[in-house]
Amino acid sequence: MFRLSAQSTRKAVQRVAVQARFQSTSAAAASSMTAKNASLAAAGVATVGTLAYLSMESVDANMAADGLHAPAYPWDHKKNLATFDHAAIRRGYQVYKEVCAACHSLDRIAWRNLIGVSHTEAEVKAMAEEHEYTDGPNDVGDMFERPEPETWVPSPQISP
């Protein structure tokens, strides 16, 4: 398949060369033929390149198959008796609360996930009580507001 394409490209270039001999020798005709030759050569190169690419074995995009692996770092929290740096996690939450919470949410984190990691249970309850959550219906069928540390951290944007 590859050879047929190369041969047909060679024949097309030869035909153009023969046509060029019989055309006028004016500058316009010469530049026209130069443009035709250039476009024909580019088309030939593109065809040959495409056929060469398609004739190769299938390309595997799996980096692990090629022996490329993500680097393994000796993280401290992965050791048997080690834990996270709780003070750093607490500082990270403080930065989120003061800077990031204006635009970004922790809507995948529940208040209860912070208990024992960065805050005490009393601190988490106090933070959760700053927000009211719609709950219900009650016995009468009305919706009501309640603070609850079991709920998710609210989103900064109010969704309609």
From TrEMBL:
Residues where heme c binds: C100, C103, H104
Ranges where the record places region Disordered: 133-160
Entry protein name: Ubiquinol-cytochrome c reductase cytochrome c1 subunit
Keyword Transport: yes
Localization per Swiss-Prot or TrEMBL: Membrane
Signal peptide location: none
Chief localization: membrane
Cofactor entry: heme c
Domain of life from the UniProt record: Eukaryota
Annotated PROSITE patterns: CYTC
GO CC term (a single one): membrane
GO molecular function: electron transfer activity; heme binding; metal ion binding
PANTHER family recorded: CYTOCHROME C1, CYTOCHROME C1, HEME PROTEIN, MITOCHONDRIAL
Cofactor, how bound (note): Binds 1 heme c group covalently per subunit.
Gene3D superfamilies xref list: Cytochrome c-like domain
GO terms (BP aspect): mitochondrial electron transport, ubiquinol to cytochrome c
Ranges of residues in domain Cytochrome c: 87-160
Claim: Transmembrane is one of the keywords in the record: yes
Keywords: Electron transport, Heme, Iron, Membrane, Metal-binding, Respiratory chain, Transmembrane, Transmembrane helix, Transport
